[in-house]
Amino acid sequence: MAFDVEFHQSSTLGLIAIPNAVPYSATKGAIIQLTRNLALDLGSFNIRVNSVSPSGINATTTYEIGESVGMNKNQLDEFIKGKCLQRVCQPEEVANLFVFLASDLCPFMTGANLVLDGGSTIV
């Protein structure tokens, strides 16, 4: 059976709290819940809906978000070193996960939020 696929990008900040990030975190949390509700509503139309929550993508936006919550580059670098894999996520790693979600390799997955964070939400 063929399925159509819809996916969203959230963030690990939709799962955890950090100081001074209420609007950003609330929005990302809402994306996760939107994904779950759409999966429920669209499943009967053979539409799978999933989201991806990466953490710290190697992009200027990572540092911009850090600055917006009061972290300078050195503080953000130290924060990253304290994570399991001690590095940021590369953009192609996020793209690969979206390619997987769009493929026929996971036809039974819907309503899921896949966390791509190198273990950052477990420490």
Unreliable sequence segments? none
CATH architecture: 3-Layer(aba) Sandwich
Helix content: 40-55%
Mean of pLDDT: 89
Strand order of the largest sheet: 1-2-3
Please describe the biggest sheet, giving its number of strands, its sense, and whether it closes into a barrel: 3 strands, parallel
- Level-1 CATH class name: Alpha Beta
Number of helices: 4
β-sheet strand percentage: 5-15%
Instruction: Please give the oligomerization state of what you see.
Output: single chain
What name is given to the CATH topology? Rossmann fold
Over the alpha carbons, how many angstroms does the gyration radius reach? Answer: 16 Å
Structural class: alpha/beta
Describe the structure.
The protein has 123 residues and is of the alpha/beta class. The N and C termini lie far apart (40 Å). The chain has helices at 22-42, 60-68, 73-81, 91-102; strands at residues 4-9, 47-54, 113-116. It has one domain (4-116): NAD(P)-binding Rossmann-like Domain (Rossmann fold), CATH 3.40.50. 41% of the residues lie in helices and 15% in strands.
Pick out its properties:
Sc_DH/Rdtase_CS; oxidoreductase activity; oxidoreductase; 123 residues; elongated; 41% helix; NAD(P)-bd_dom_sf; 15% strand; SDR_fam; single chain; alpha/beta
